[in-house]
Amino acid sequence: MSIPSHPAKWWHSLGDGMIRCDLCPRHCHIQNEHFGYCRVRFAKNGSLFTIVYGDCSGFALDPIEKKPLFHFLPGSNTFSFGTASCNMGCVFCQNWRITKESCEEVLVSEATPEAIAEAAKENNCASVSFTYNEPTISLEYLLDTAHNCHQLGIRTVAVTNGYISKEARHDCYSAVDAANIDLKGFSEKFYQNYCKASLKPVLETLDYVANQTQTWLEVTTLLIPGANDSNSEIEAMTKWLVGNLGPHVPLHFSAFHPAYELSGIQSTPAATLLRARDIAKKNGIHHVYTGNILESKTQATYCSECKKIVIERDGFRTQSVFLTDGKCHHCQAPLAGIFMRQKKPS
Fold this sequence. Notes:
Strands 8-9-11-12-13-14-15-16 form an eight-stranded mixed β-sheet. The protein has a three-stranded antiparallel β-sheet with strand order 1-6-5, with no helix packed on it. By secondary structure, the protein is an alpha/beta fold. 26% of the residues lie in helices and 25% in strands.
């Protein structure tokens, strides 16, 4: 067996050829010539390697709103790419063909960090997004790509589950300019039964990003009928978000569609998302959005002071922006986010 590809970071030796991976909260103990849980970290002769560095599962030019990020460079395009696999075991995974199948089947393209940055520049993208699968497990690739992007004036985005170790958090969020973190539910039971993971490290990541970094943060929760959509869970979650992250961090409630091991569950009714939005707004979150349903009113951004629309959207496309230097045209109140200089609509 001769698998090693690129030297990994965030690990230490336990002796006798055993490695402890320090990249995510699993802290896998990996025997020689074996993989960790994520299936991309491989131990060989007392060292750890990543097998996905420079290999991609696909590329796309997307509106930044598709990540979803509604308060980060609205109306701009992002160059999206990902690798393969994941460090969670979500039974409802919407991208399961990329995260659950073998890396050999999924990784179809080679791309150096330099090539990705150049491609983004050539396509007039304001940012590069690490998406499709969990970017944490290919953090070495992310860091080198982010470095090359920043040299060209291109910003970077992580679409992530937030399941990262304390040892790696600083390195990751020093490199990305914005992140959308999936808060998949708000109970340990849900995370254990549906994600094969734990809630606590995700909450720690959210708190860290919001309060100790310059990374712009938005949060997404996929609401699954009968699993994580109760009033009590949404109440508890939104109160925690306001109390720990602040009312200005945008929250996206997204509709579940049958997938992977939950193919027999119905799609989330629009009424569930609207109910969750009402609870979140009642508990003080300024900007609450709905996704995977057609509802323009709940995809628009409203000024938290005068309550008038400052960003109009049609699906994932920004239509009108009523901001100048991040301030509302109607009342001059600042809008939380990172915005390009906007001209007043004629």
